[in-house]
Amino acid sequence: TDWTEAGSGLGAGGAQVLLVHVAGGSVTGQHLLPVVQVSADLQTQARFGADLDGTVAGAYDEQAHQLGRILVDVASGRHTPRALANGNVGFQVTRGLLGTSM
To answer: What's the rounded Cα separation, in Å, for the pair 57 and 27?
Structure first.
């Protein structure tokens, strides 16, 4: 249930980019893969807009186009995810259900 642990696991498992829709807050970035944060939630956009990589609005086809553009910009190196650029990154490896994460 820990975001940092889940993100680290996805990166270690071979994910190339992670697109996250956030509402009510933001998440930490990862060094293993770019974490792209977007939101369609107006309150989240107002409060955490500086931490988001993009916002989505409009019809579904417009939203898909907006998300695709953001992902292409990140994958091509034209945009560094905000969490990574701001140093808001984490890394955590689990040691099992009964072990201590580090």
So the answer is: 21
What average pLDDT does range 70-83 have in this prediction?
94
Share of the chain above pLDDT 90, in %: 59
Q: CA-to-CA distance for 53 and 39, rounded, in angstroms? A: 9
By the 8 A CB rule, do 67 and 13 touch? no
- Put simply, whether the predicted model's pTM sits higher than 0.90 gets the answer no
Which 3 state secondary structure label does DSSP give 2?
Answer: coil
Q: What is the DSSP string of 69-97?
A: HHHHHHHTTS---HHHHTT-B-------S
The three-class DSSP label of residue 12 is helix
Q: Report the amino acid identity of residue 72.
A: V
Q: Using CA atoms, how far apart are residues 84 and 19, in angstroms rounded to an integer?
A: 14
Question: What is the DSSP track for 15-76?
Answer: -S-EEEE-SSS---B-SSS-EEEEE--HHHHHHHGGG-SEE--SSHHHHHHHHHHHHHHHHT
